[in-house]
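Let us work through a complete example step by step.
Step 1: write down the sequence.
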Amino acid sequence: MKENGVVKAYAANTNQGIVRDYNEDRVSIVLNMQKPPQKKCDRWPKCSFFAIFDGHGGHTCADFLRDNLHQFIIRDSEFPQNPRQAIVNGFWKSEMYFLDTVEKFSAGRQNMLDRSGSCAIVTLFVDDVCYSANVGDSRAIMSCCGGKYTVALSEDHKPNEKEEHQRIINAGGKIYQTQSMTKVQDENAKPGVMRDQILLGPHRVFPGRLSVSRTFGDIEAKRTKYQGNPKVVIATPDIKCFKIEDNYDYIVLGCDGIYDKLTNIQVI
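Step 2: predict the structure and record it as tokens.
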């Protein structure tokens, strides 16, 4: 239990679950970010950084973000006077650096191409102001007034969401659902009589074949030399900004695995 400015305490937990024998999620906590040596500013605010990186297709991208994203943000020329723009710039620079590095490392070795990607949910505290930034379908929610109110601090980036759907189509992408067939009991027939039932998979975006519409990494979805489209699956964050008040209790950051099973209110 530690304290830094408006942050009075924090806790973190990650669980592999029972389906997979690996965990590609990563957590980043920097309680008291120090001023980079090259920064020239009269006053450095109290800064804390909390993030979850929900990796997929490997852990390389999530590892990279865990170790570097906060540095890209606070080293940006807009920080600390304009944290919102610094977050936008830092996300973009992180994305470009990672994709360029992947491409450079795999030059001439297609079988060595790192295809990993990651979602990101970030809360950055600058003095008494919180910036919540989201790429993907991880989520941040806040409890207020002892749990009487729940405030969503992020919007899920899913290809079937109205705004994301339109953005993808306008950018030249496509959205699809996979179908499979299974046998189920025919409720209008005797026990043991089965009928066919179509099972629909999640909405996915092409190129990329991803069930989220914004990510870091996923080079095959983004670079044209791998038949990707840089305008379809993007790493541009949605950002919410607010001043911390006395009746704000705590913020929960979590991956989609939690919110697939529990509502925001249940989580709080």
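Step 3: interpret the result. The domain at 25-175+234-267 is CATH 3.60.40.10 (Phosphatase 2c; domain 1).
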